[in-house]
Amino acid sequence: MGAAFFWGAVSGGAVLLGAIISMIIHIPRKILGFVMAFGVGVLIGAATFELLQESLNKSELTNTIIGFVAGAVVFTVLEALITHHGGKHRKRSHAHELQHADNDSSSGSKNSGDRSGGGLGIFIGTVMDAIPESIMLGTTLIGGKGVSMLLLLAVFISNIPEGLSSTSGMLKSGQSKKKIIFLFVSVTIVAGLSALFGYVFLDHADPAVISIISSFAAGGIITMIGATMMPEAYEDGGALVGLFTAAGVMTSVLLDYLG
Prior knowledge:
transmembrane; globular; ZIP family metal transporter; single chain; membrane
């Protein structure tokens, strides 16, 4: 059980690592775009080779489709709610400027609420991104197997730019460093607990249940990539991000093959 919590915390802790780096050094937006594009590629591979393949191996195609569609729909609804509460630009390296643009289109009386709501929205969005990924990371340890390095690497890489970009925006919007660190330490703990939940409570679950949960996580991840990560990567990195995404997919292929 300790291993499940540890690996979940490691994957979620990448957000905290990104936050700390953002407080120490400035990273150009183009570099952030390249890193995020690489993370997109690895996540696509992890969702395909790890989660969807696991889902198909555990049960029939119908359960995989049900879980995948449900994950996509749930993430879309949550994304709409998060956007409403100010977390729309949580993965953006220039979140502060975008938040101001949104505020300028709203009434002046809402500006102070948007500022505080943005920090809460970023936190809620980051937690909602972390939970399904961490649960599935925990399930990879079931049966005495080692953690899936493909899924771990995919989540870790994608979380670093999220921590970098969201911290930059939160600092510029007036959030204190202490509060930001506290929020992302909380995300790390939630990720660890989610992985522990996946390991403990899904250990003896029906294969059909694990199949649906695996494809549910895949659906959520793919939808998240399309809604937030890919647009941000291209906006920051330009046309070259396609090469980094391809490199990420090939990295996931190699990790799956070697694993």
